[in-house]
Amino acid sequence: xxxxxxxIKYDGSGFFGWQRQEGVRTVQGTIEEALxxxxxxxxxxIGTSRTDRGVHALGQRAVFDxxxxxxxxxxxxxxLNNALCAVTKKYGPQDVLIQxxxxxxxxxxxxxxxxDKLYRYLIRNTRExxxxxxxxxxxxxxxxxxxxxxxxxxxxxxxxxxxxxxSAGGTPRESTVRTIYSIDIGRDNDEVEILIRGDxxxxxMVRIIVGTLVEVGLGKRKPDSVKEALLACDRCEAGHTAPxxxxxxVEITY
Amino acid sequence: xxxxxxxIKYDGSGFFGWQRQEGVRTVQGTIEEALxxxxxxxxxxIGTSRTDRGVHALGQRAVFDxxxxxxxxxxxxxxLNNALCAVTKKYGPQDVLIQxxxxxxxxxxxxxxxxDKLYRYLIRNTRExxxxxxxxxxxxxxxxxxxxxxxxxxxxxxxxxxxxxxSAGGTPRESTVRTIYSIDIGRDNDEVEILIRGDxxxxxMVRIIVGTLVEVGLGKRKPDSVKEALLACDRCEAGHTAPxxxxxxVEITY
Lengths: 254, 254
Prior knowledge:
The structure is a homodimer of 254-residue chains. Chain A is built from five helices and ten strands. With 254 residues, the first copy, chain A, is of the alpha+beta class. In chain A, strands 1, 2, 3, 4, 5, 6, 7, 8, 9 and 10 form a ten-stranded mixed β-sheet that branches. In chain A, β2 and β3 (56-66) form a beta hairpin. The mean pLDDT of chain A is 96.
């Protein structure tokens, strides 16, 4: 049996999220349809992160198994993208792309073997609304104080119980302890970019962290309140959930 | 009677073009719906350019009339965008924005009084396909020689009969003579941008000019052949019609 690891880029705006669901268009469902077409039999994939509806990916990962790969691995990427192009055609130009394929050991697991994940959150911080950015960023008209946001962000780094930064409705997890290695915040003119690297994230965790930092940046809460929110282990103490559109799964490291 | 001129920005990917049509979502139809909601009676608009399905606008123009504007003109933009937000809501975040409103003379006509129009065409000239750019540019994997394209572009400037650069199916025009003031071509890494300014354009004229220049840039035709195509007054002598996605109506000057 050959196990193949894919690196996947997608614009999340045309999908109801990653996870296969009956009757709606999902990233997993679309890739499975393309693989099944290509190999002429039903093929299932296992992804690393179940990105929500509207969330984008620059480097999602997923694996699938095949009894014996009959085409050279070097040709697989192109064959798979051609199949994806055919499958996505009725929805418009191809909005999910296989960037890389590689053979991995049959014991390799895309989720359990992931060491860390990097998410990017993009905010457009300018008065004027831009229709072209509506599906790709979070528009905040009032000026964000990124210095205050950085102070608050540092309090969220490290190994902590992030129960306050978790939405109900996700897959139940045994523990709400995670490690955030770094939160970087940078401004480039109107764009504020937040990069969060961690060993794993609870349901909506990145978006709640961003929403909380935004409230700090707007002066609606003090940077110190973020530490208190963390210690409270109570969702009500953290800020709002930032919208899906601004979120990008950048990379997964094994 | 008050005549109001609007400057409009829209992402064309969610619309079946500018022109109102029964049963499909168009930019004109959407703005008319918002205006009718705001003023509580049916209001029609006259636009400058009937952009095709998938074509974007950074500075489209249109007018509407109202017996007497009862809110200050300074509040109209916000009121109209709020109405547009409500009208577009079921399709997602607002994809058409009123950027400016101004009172004009009742004799002002947005199309007949237009002196020149500027279009921008965006090409992504790089091997890797990018799902995020699929609705906003023309992807060409092979390298384009922009020097050759510029030589060809110069042959299309001036006052000419552009019958070769017109698709069938547009509004019949009395004359196919137009003036192109300038065609500029610039490269910024992977992006090739073509700016075309003229006093008016025939149906699909910008896209056929771009398609023809692309064929020159790929070495599929000589720069001189573009002059021949122009003189032939025959659509078959020009190149392919570049896709709508890369086209932006930038501004209209009165």
